[in-house]
Amino acid sequence: SNLHFSGKIIHKSRISKPHHKEKISREIELHASLAHRNVVQFFKHFEDSENIYIMLENCSRKSLVHVLKARVTVTEPETRYYMAALCQGVEYIHSQNIIHRDLKLGNLFLTANMSVKIGDFGLATRLGQEKKGWVVKIFRRMSFLSRQSYQHPGRIWKIFFFDIQSFIWVMYIY
Predict the structure, then answer these.
(1) What is the DSSP string of 31-43?
(2) In angstroms, rounded to a whole number, what is the distance separating the alpha carbons of residues 39 and 7?
(3) Of 38, 45, 33, nearest to 6 (Cα)?
(4) Quick check: helix, strand or coil at residue 46?
(5) Are 116 and 89 in contact (CB under 8 A)?
(6) N or C terminus of the chain: which is more exposed, having fewer CB within 10 Å?
(7) pLDDT in tens, 15-33
């Protein structure tokens, strides 16, 4: 059929606790409920005795992490383009009462025609279902990642948010 998909394969041997299965089920349920030009399209999921398979839109140009690593910097017009697409995607996700909770360059994917797509809903939750304490965990994790993985001599983006009511963007470029 000449169609190309991306796949996420989760080995069942890595699902050792009941909350891991709940997390995967929540990721599938939330991602499957979304349909927007700036969200990676969810096609279907299925499983066999060894794995859970999630079929997704193919984002052949990988993620913004790959762009930044290859080029070190991006131009101001490119940054505006990426940020506009990100804001439109986040606005849609929030309109569906979903909080992504893991926005970072590695979860912003690019299609063959350079459309920006938000992906990886593994930490996402529906508003009202979030667990207490996730704000601090995510903040610490993002702070650690920004110091380690994204420490480039070029431009750096940090994106933090807590919930829809107190949506806080801390974006800086240096």
Answers:
(1) HHT---TTBPPEE
(2) 15
(3) 45
(4) strand
(5) yes
(6) N
(7) 888 888 899 999 999 999 9
Element housing 124 (H / E): none
Question: What is the Cα–Cα distance from 86 to 133, expressed in whole angstroms?
Answer: 25
Only one residue has tokens 């920004």, namely 146
Strand stretches in the chain, DSSP E: 5-11, 42-47, 51-57, 98-99, 108-110, 116-118, 125-126
Quick one: tokens of 103? 């926005």
Please confirm, yes or no, whether 48 is among the known catalytic residues: no
Catalytic option among 48, 102, 120, 163? 102
Helix (H, G, I), strand (E, B) or coil at 123: coil
Question: Which residue, 23, 52, 37, 63, is CA-closest to 157?
Answer: 63
**Cβ–Cβ under 8 Å, residues 160 and 138:** yes
- Cα–Cα distance measured from residue 136 to residue 39, given in angstroms and rounded to the nearest whole number: 26
- Cα dihedral 112→122→138→60 (10° resolution): -10
89 and 124 Cβ atoms separated by less than 8 Å: no
Question: What global pTM score does this model have?
Answer: 0.76
Whole-angstrom distance, CA of residue 110 vs CA of residue 78: 13
88-132 residue pLDDT tens: 999 899 899 998 888 889 999 999 999 999 999 999 998 876 554
